[in-house]
Amino acid sequence: MADPRFFTPKGPFSLARLAELAVADLAPGADLAKEFTHVAPLETAGPEAVGFLDNRRYVDVFCQSRAGACVVRPAMADKAPAGMELLLAKEPYPAYARIARAFFPSSDPVSEVSPSAVVDSTARLSPDCRVEAGAFIGAGAEIGRRSTIRANAVIDAGVVIGNDCVVGACASLSHCLIGNRVVIYPGARIGQDGFGFATSKDGHLRIPQVGRVVIYDDVEIGANTTIDRGSGPDTVIGRGCMIDNLVQIAHNVQLGEGCIIVAQVGISGSTKLEDHVVAGGQAGLTGHLKIGKGSRIAAQAGVMRDTEPGQNYGGSPAVPAREWHRQTVALARLAAGKGTK
Amino acid sequence: MADPRFFTPKGPFSLARLAELAVADLAPGADLAKEFTHVAPLETAGPEAVGFLDNRRYVDVFCQSRAGACVVRPAMADKAPAGMELLLAKEPYPAYARIARAFFPSSDPVSEVSPSAVVDSTARLSPDCRVEAGAFIGAGAEIGRRSTIRANAVIDAGVVIGNDCVVGACASLSHCLIGNRVVIYPGARIGQDGFGFATSKDGHLRIPQVGRVVIYDDVEIGANTTIDRGSGPDTVIGRGCMIDNLVQIAHNVQLGEGCIIVAQVGISGSTKLEDHVVAGGQAGLTGHLKIGKGSRIAAQAGVMRDTEPGQNYGGSPAVPAREWHRQTVALARLAAGKGTK
Amino acid sequence: MADPRFFTPKGPFSLARLAELAVADLAPGADLAKEFTHVAPLETAGPEAVGFLDNRRYVDVFCQSRAGACVVRPAMADKAPAGMELLLAKEPYPAYARIARAFFPSSDPVSEVSPSAVVDSTARLSPDCRVEAGAFIGAGAEIGRRSTIRANAVIDAGVVIGNDCVVGACASLSHCLIGNRVVIYPGARIGQDGFGFATSKDGHLRIPQVGRVVIYDDVEIGANTTIDRGSGPDTVIGRGCMIDNLVQIAHNVQLGEGCIIVAQVGISGSTKLEDHVVAGGQAGLTGHLKIGKGSRIAAQAGVMRDTEPGQNYGGSPAVPAREWHRQTVALARLAAGKGTK
């Protein structure tokens, strides 16, 4: 059960209401009025909690769980332990997400500008935004409705932040325009100069970086992730992108809509990702590439060429995933002294 | 010699006292009363300094060193330059550690809450803790005895920090419970939401992350490292773990006792490391794995399967180390146009 | 055109003046008096803007650009669209850099110590330095002429910062000496303890790290990069080094002059890079290596041995680049069921 020092669930919700929220079916004989007070992992859930089963690795945990209800695929129904109510959904994870969000909704912030925040007199703060202790807001910056600037964050001059955003503790933003419902995690660095210099006989000459970072609606930027501003063009993060922790996004990179960028990925300058690209953890993409719509890049892959839409890639240097798997098998066989067939 | 702007050594200590501290043997004829004032690298140490030799790469440096004393393996004794006192230990590095800690002990902080810190009225601070300038302490948070919160760090509501801890400058902690003698380096991010969302036809649905981060005693968390809180279960860091800089630890990861996680490692969600696992720099572990007790993962390895206790792994995808070395050799021979034997 | 919320160009400059600044030749019949007001990417530049063409990938963009002037190699002159003035340079990128720097020079900061900064009474601040809101300056620290400490940065006791430096928002510095014209990006962590401990039967014994970080003139340190102080020797960053974001530099590492370290590189303890080494993104170097002058390490390479001066390396474990390419080709052929010739 969620630690009450940190979380306060809404509810309780009846089974009928949960099915409605989750867009899930109920099993015959379900007790529609039965009430539930929270969500919990199947291992530790008790009779008042709702859990979920999505990953087959955890079927045994499901079979022995004491959870009062569980979101599962219909095919798993007959493995459920006695007494467990079932919320049947073809895609249990988004169904569970809707239930968990009902118990733990994001709430509007308490509007307040901390007396220890430093806000430039020309900054424009919406009346219902929140600026916490030690935050800095520079000249001409704009903070939208119900947006929160957490403690010790730094918002530089001219930055525009839309509505319902959160900028995490100790994050810093400059030279950027941020849409609505954007969540920036603690320590993220957005809008600093890119790594732009020309090497000459006089040494490395820094080149002024006169673009911006433009972040569209519904984006998340992970903790300690760095996004450099463009050198002249902008660096662009498309609507609905999810970017994990410790990711590096270089100047002029463009991400389409709904991309998923897992932790510690690095994307070099001027590379363009079309919509719905997925890059696994620690993958690296060199500069000036075009990554086709819906390409999936495996963890630790090193992408050095453009990719085809909808295709999977892996390895370093990256190749189409099937080829990568063949290489892996061929190398193992070679090392074992076997032939390739 | 350590720069006096930054370090003030204790001492001097006699050779006899150093041998006692280090649990080291002395060579016949050692001058027990000879005094030493500091520790220093063998390259630059003078007659009043104590150095050490652990890595064979540096034997030549040892032979030419002017250090007054040196911690070495007994087998090296006959290579010592004339006039150098020897502290003989089978394991020179921990022996040297004990001597260096005598010269440079960690001292209790000066208790003080900076007038520019912002501390919620419901936070519970021990009377001998230290809270520096610009730090923020949220509602209900607890800071233990002799613990220090460095400048501009952010401790969110409900966080519990034990005794003799240090939270570095500009670090941020939320939704976490921290044991005793835990050192959190500058810029570390602990307890933010994990990268948890369900992809549906409505886009990426964020899933409330209602677990915590639980950190046991004697842990170190490196600079700019990120540790996400659990999604329902907790993220757990076991007693005595040493975590380097820029490491990513995802939600629900569990580390056993005494694990060593080198810089830039990434550990994906729900993976469990048993005790004393060592992960080399930039290694990546995918999610939902079980890493056996004492497994050693090579730098840059990409672990995609469970590992056996006590075994070494390398490569991407990772395989047992012997196999990895065979693969490396076989590929080099293949590229050179040679056979596999 | 650069967003006026963030950038205010100098100028206008005549074509003759731009040629002089860039040390570029003009084409016959050039309109020497024609004036230009800013720089812009070739895609979006209009008749008053100056662009550049360096990468062949963008020749088509050049041919269709509406830019009033463009810095290009002489060989490209005949592909220019009608009406475009040409600034001809064998190396267009540094030539463009000089023009862009004329439009967007770095200007001296407005001298001021924010009333919300916390500055120790024994710190020595030059009269024309700038210390922004929420910054902390510890006992005995020194800040040179025209140097800026951005908002919420932390400069610990004894740190020395030269002239014309910038320390970014939320960065933290301790135990370090910084030269002139050094730029430290937001969230960088410099001078904390290295990852130094000895493993013994009593657990992991932390070893006091009594060295410093010494950074020479004209260095850039990227956002959220971490540089640990030496254990006894110093960690040293040579003059003119360019270090990108999220780089890890461990204790006792030494970088020669003019090294280029791309994002997410990790360099392990005591490794020495000679002058002008280039390390590509996500490359990893193990400890105690000597990397020869001008060595070039490919992205994602894993260097485990010393390298020869002037040579290129790639792969993990890294080998000379030619060998790496042969391995890549040989493995692809093997996987395709073909021979090695």
Give structural attributes:
homotrimer, 341 residues, alpha/beta, ten-stranded parallel β-sheet, 12% helix, 28% strand
Rg for CA atoms of chain A: 24 Å
Bin the helical content of chain A.
Answer: 10-25%
Overall form of chain A: flat
* Strand order, sheet with most strands of chain A: 8-11-14-17-20-25-28-31-34-37-39-40
Biggest chain-to-chain interface with counts = A-B, 63 and 65 residues
Quaternary structure state of the chains depicted = homotrimer
Helix tally of chain A? 4
Tell me what you see in this structure.
3 copies of one chain form a homotrimer. By secondary structure, chain A is of the alpha/beta class. Chain A has a 12-stranded mixed sheet, with helices on one face. Chain A has a 10-stranded parallel sheet with strand order 9-12-15-18-21-26-29-32-35-38, with no helix packed on it. In chain A, a hairpin with a 4-residue loop joins β39 (312-314) and β40 (319-320). Chain A contains 4 helices and 40 strands. Chain A is flat. The mean pLDDT of chain A is 96. Chain A is 12% helix and 28% strand. Chains A and B meet through α3 and α4 of A and β22, β23 and α4 of B.
